[in-house]
Amino acid sequence: MASQRELTLGGILSHLRRDDAGWHIVYQGLTLRSVFQPVVSITHKRIVGYEALLRATDQSGRALRPDTVFARAPGKGAALAFERLARCVHFANFAEQNTRTVAPTLTSLAAPQGGDQCAWGGPARTDGGWLFVNALPRLFRTGWSYTSFIDELCDHFGLPPWRVVIEMIEEPAADEGLFMRTVEALRERQLLIAIDDFGTGFSNFDRIWHVRPDIVKLDRSLVARMATPGADPQFATQLVTMLHRAGTLVLGEGVENEAEMLTLMEADTDFIQGYWLGEPGASLDAAGRAAAPAIDAMWERFRAHAGTVPRVPADFAEFEATVLAGARVYADTRDLALAARETFARSPARRVFVLDADGEQHQPSITHETAPKPARLWPLFPDTYSNWSRRAYFRRALAAPGRVAVMGPHYSLTEGKDCYTAAVAIEVGGVTQVFCVDFAPNGSSVRLFDES
Fold it and tell me: Which ranges carry the EAL domain (predicted)?
């Protein structure tokens, strides 16, 4: 059982030692050290923070996983001691290498007995950045005195709270009210909140709505699945879009290969971290040097990849003209079948339909003979009397009569797969109607426009 003295910052600092590998703590036969993995902003093309990772070894030098270290703690007091020891090691190593303000000497709170003196050496760096640190779930959920200790760490090491990101693993809380009060206490101190491992276990948007995190970290397994050959690229895009609209930044973690990196870039993910950018290390400088060329390569490969994926079909201008031609035929004849034949003859269209100014569909769609008609969607037919006013293409068409508005990709309730829809508002007998065409130009993987 940890003593009260061991749980105070002064008590913890008495265990802190410095050697060539950095600050470390030896406690109950274990040596605790820090390594750091850079977090890169894709847009800014630079490192904007580092995640602190615990490295523990026993007396024989055998490496232990962090979860093994905490699992060996006999109770809450022992787990809290290890948590605070690890936190102090991370702050000490990070603040020495990456801070905007010169930190006070460690000897101001504790003078170690023997070994290296706890004192800072060298000038403070001026490049800043976030420090990401993990919160131990079982302590975070039980109302432990987290906020006051974080305050002490920030004050002692000269690290502003707004540069510290507390990572919370997605797990259910035994006392949700207590959990949220702890979160709010952290937020009041200007600490940033991150939801870790999103996409596994108990991950859900309900926690996102309640916690309102500053950052959501997509779990490594989710990133890998999204980058699997044959996976729908729009899944990643829509997931990131939903998280952005929930008011949070998005970080893809565990990036290990080019496919994962490109998937996250195309999905408009804000940050990435992982072995593709370099292995974690005790030196921030070394980790930064490894990441720098990877960042340049990341953008070079993205530009090369973007050149192989059509963003708009080569014949889009011709297709737009065809939609307008079909709309004119309908305006002149009020014959949807005739207008559909004109449209099908000159474009990769799959479906033609007409809406009134309220988005109501009063006559059946006309579908190209080659378009799929999945039996599983049969209850959705016929589509007469449907209302499509919620769709962006309808709203955009009404906002700019005579101009073709395009939306996509979006999920088709007719085919059960992605499609694009073009629409144009026209006058038919003095009444506004919207002429619409569904199509899948150059295959379903083309990214043309989104709904934003």
Answer: 15-294
Q: By C-alpha distance, which of 208, 207, 215 is closest to 166?
A: 215
* 164, amino acid identity: V
Are 51 and 36 contacting, i.e. CB atoms less than 8 angstroms apart?
Answer: yes
DSSP H stretches of helix in 213-333: 220-226, 233-245, 258-266, 284-306, 316-333
Residue 293 preceded by cis peptide, ω within 30: no
Structural domains of the chain in order of their starting residue, each with its CATH number: 4-306 (3.20.20.450), 316-439 (3.30.450.20)
* Global confidence as pTM: 0.77
For the record, the structure tokens of 417 come out as 């797969």
Question: Are the CB atoms for 161 and 133 separated by under 8 Å?
Answer: no
Q: How many CB atoms lie within 10 A of CB 311?
A: 11
C-alpha angle 331-432-415 in degrees, rounded to nearest 5: 75
- Burial label for 19, CB within 10 Å (0-12, 13-18, 19+), is exposed
The rounded distance, in Å, linking the Cα atoms of 135 and 146 is 9
Distances (CA, A) of 237 to 233, 327, 419: 7, 32, 15
Strand partners, 16: 25
Strand, coil or helix: what is 396? helix
b/e map 417-438, b = 16+ CB within 10 Å: ebbbbbbbbbebeeeebbbbbb
Q: Provide long-range contacts, Cβ within 8 A and 24+ apart, for 420-423.
A: 420/446, 420/448, 420/449, 421/391, 421/393, 422/319, 422/320, 422/323, 422/393, 423/355, 423/393, 423/394, 423/396, 423/397
The token duo for 90 is 């991370």
Give mean pLDDT in consecutive 10-residue pieces for the chain, a chain of 452 residues: 67 91 92 96 93 94 85 68 90 84 37 38 51 76 64 92 87 67 84 90 76 94 94 88 93 96 95 93 89 90 76 60 93 97 88 97 94 87 93 95 88 86 95 93 41 40
Return the SS3 of 313: coil
Asked if residue 38 has a cis previous peptide bond (ω within 30° of 0), the answer is no
- Residue 57's CB is within 10 A of a number of other CB atoms, namely 16
Using DSSP bridges, classify how beta strands 164-169 and 130-134 pair: parallel, antiparallel or unpaired.
parallel
